[in-house]
What we know:
40% helix, 9 helices, TIM Barrel, Pyridoxal phosphate homeostasis protein, binds pyridoxal-5'-phosphate, PyrdxlP_homeostasis, alpha/beta, single chain
Amino acid sequence: xxxxxxxxxEEKIEAAKARRTPQITEDVQLVAVTKNHDVAAMREAIDAGxxxxxxxRIQEAMGKYETLxxxxxxxxxxxxxxxxxxxxxxYFDLIHSVDTPHLARALDKEAGKxxxxxxxxxxxxxxxxxxxxxxxxxxxxxxxxxxDELPHLRLCGLMCIAPNxxxxxxxxxLFRRMREIFDGIKDxxxxxxxxxxxxxxxxxxxxxxxxxxxxxxxxxxxxFGPRQY
Length: 229
Ligand SMILES: *Cc1c(COP(=O)(O)O)cnc(C)c1O
């Protein structure tokens, strides 16, 4: 079941890639979002070819990490509280949700303590939804500069979550704008940043996100079915 759904998602990813403008040639990394799904489901997905796992809560991810370990790449996609920075740098390969100077500094400090350079994305709240985290576009530049300067963080790109419109086509202008911002920051003369990832698109809108230039998509429900809370 999971294997079949995964294959459908992979086919849709390929189809969406084919619809992009020719300037966008990057590969698209699928992050399978496993929050609220158990290790058995995760194993099924891994056996079917999943290499990258997305979790949004540290506590939940820790238990799963103890069982599955380093056979997959771990992505932290959810909002992160500063007091969890220590665990976050211990478990996660890429943290998608840096959105304040305070959090950036906390992650830098904890990464330094374990001798790690932590790969991070900065989360942008383009639609300025109060219910969502992320930095506003007008505050993005100084945060990018700060993350670039912190010695134990490596800035790798941007992440965004589109509003949950009934009509997913409404997300398109927002994804397009994110890609413009992403292409724009590639030209900034950073010190250590390596701008390569644009993480956007979830189960209901990843096709549109890819068409508009996402190169990481975070897909849960379309692979694992609805979550039980
Ligand atoms: C849960 C979650 C996803 C996956 O959502 P689905 O609709 O289940 O695909 C993607 N990104 C973030 C930040 C999430 O919290």
